[in-house]
Amino acid sequence: MTIKLGVPSKGRLMDKTFDWFAKRGVTLTRTGSDREYAGAVAGIDGVALVLLSAGEIPRELAAGRIHLGVTGTDLVQDKLPLWEQQVEPIVEMGFGHADLVLAVPTAWVDVDLTDDLDAVAAMFRARHGFRLRIATKYHRLVREFLRDAGVADYALVDSQGATEGTVANETAEAIADITSSGETLSANHLKVLSDGLILASQATLWRSRVAPLEDADRAVLRDLSERLA
Amino acid sequence: MSTPRARALALRAAFEAAGARVVEPPVLQPAELLLDLYGEDIRARAYVTSDALRGEQMLRPDFTVPVVQMHMATGAEPARYTYAGEVFRRQEDDAERANEYWQVGYEVFDRADPPAADAEVFALIANTLTHLPLRAVTGDIGILMAAVESLQTSDRRKAALRRHIWRPRRFRALLDRFGGRVPVPASRAALIAGDVTSTAPLTGLRTRSEIDARIAALRADAAEPPIGAQELEGLEALLAVRETVPFALQQLNDLSVDMPAIKPAVRRFAARAEALRARGIDVDALTFEASHGRTLMEYYDGFVFAFYADGRPDLPPIASGGRYDALTQRLGGGDEIPAVGAVLRPGLMVELEGPP
Prior knowledge:
- The structure holds two protein chains of two kinds.
- Chain A is an alpha/beta fold.
- Chain A has two domains: 3-96 and 202-228, Periplasmic binding protein-like II (D-Maltodextrin-Binding Protein, domain 2); 98-201, Periplasmic binding protein-like II (D-Maltodextrin-Binding Protein, domain 2).
- Chain A has helices at residues 11-23, 57-63, 73-79, 83-86, 114-128, 139-149, 183-187, 215-228, and strands at 3-8, 27-31, 38-42, 47-52, 68-72, 87-92, 98-105, 132-136, 154-158, 174-179, 190-201, 203-208.
- In chain A, strand 8, helix 6 and strand 9 form a beta-alpha-beta unit.
- The two termini of chain A are 23 Å apart.
- Chain B has a domain at 155-227.
């Protein structure tokens, strides 16, 4: 048996993951052609590399098909309702910072807090006859956040991309999306609510709590964890 | 050992024999109405599916809404209905909880004597459950609504409190604010003072006049005196009432001296207690909790109750119900009728009964 390590299969997240492991003496490389998702691990024995989409890594960890995986806190918490029982964070990797935030039009001078948003949602519904729409792809996280904040009279509308544009397009009144710098938000005349940070996310190395382990695997996992943490 | 299905059908037959008409609402319900009534919370609790012709559909999360719709569209009154069938609930936090289970219900649409109808439904359910070690809890959302109505404050504040009766934490935060017990947030103070401006273009559907209306409302609210400490204490004492019915009635009567607006609701509570007694319920041992029902479905607006299994805090209520007059108005297209109903979970009954 080997320890299976799942890492993002492309882009800056993959490059930074490779750099991060390299600094700790574990060399990850993609093998074969550019289009082939195969990889190799050097610097430690008994570890196999699995290249996956960052969005699939939570599910693979929860299913126990990989032992370790690199993905964002946001994806783990949105995709795995019982994430604390299924995975354990080993170390935050210091890159891939992204905050899931709640944002409204900057011109809404009367809205600074979720408390304001709730009051505006009530007035909006009375005036327009439907609930204030919030565009997002992080349905569960946003719903739980708004429930805790006591916001009512809203509806989530699904937006899988260009979420910042939904307000100008009048398909939503507010948005909840990932932002790293806030530039896209301000370019779209949106502002983050003062108490609108839903989740602060960064690339994190996770351990599956359910993946099967043999004794030899346990030793490899312990060795690897010590070198990485 | 009986199966949940067999038990459900036997209970429905018993309710039918007691005078109710059997109804069978479809499993698939249009999602739009349920979403409009309950908002996103229902999406977290119900399975949503769709097709290109009918749009979003929900696997029925309960029977009450379709039964009310059916009655408001076609029903003659008074009416009593019973049903048995599976309901479906998404579970996101607790994998141990069932996502598909049987419910048997009994619903009464009758304007003659609401306290008697409350007692009829409660007694029917209680008599069905006498063989099980259960604990009944009752409450009355109508008393809470009347207490909010009784506050010496603006209609806008009352509307905000009424809207959040089902969100206890938010309700408390609003009370703290309206009572002047927490400082006004800095951003709001600046807005009221006229110090917040923006040169950003206004995007989206919400108009400038809506923003101005909200600012005007905040200014008007800032000019309102806080709700008095004595009034807040009265309301908090009321929310904390947790007694057997006779003692609760005594406490509510005492509280109504300073909150005269709750008197009609307290009289209804007293009438219900008498009606329950007349049906053989041991009212002296029955628990009343003023806050009970505040985390149930939003449609209950009067009497509420639930039966819990003793020593099994892991189980949801074995039976629950309440009065939902406002829902009939909402779905009635200008019509309304007082209504009260309850559901049982035959699967949990069978589980608690154990092997014969």
